[in-house]
Design brief:
Elements (H helix, E strand, L loop, with lengths): L7 E5 L4 E8 L2 E7 L16 H9 L1 H12 L9 H19 L1
Antiparallel strand pairs: 1-2, 2-3
Length: 100
Amino acid sequence: MGREVGSSLFCFDRQLTLVSYILKRKKCVLLLSTMHHDDAANEDQERKPDIVLFHNETKSGVDTLDQLVRVYTCKRRTQRWLMVLWFNTLDYAVLAACVI
């Protein structure tokens, strides 16, 4: 038996808050935040924690960045994880240089 849909588990450390939210059956979302320091949840929207709501409101910039990197990429097929990391870093560095 798993947790019920809409349930949340919180873990607090000095400056960090980790939340585990069950979005759908067998779909767990993990988010780490340095901005939120309580277990506040919205009762109107499926008991979503404030951390999840904040993420959903502000993720459009990340989606745009990922779209641009996907179109203009220098990635190559490789089995070496270090090269994969290098190509990803290079993609984001080139995009950042174009923006500046």
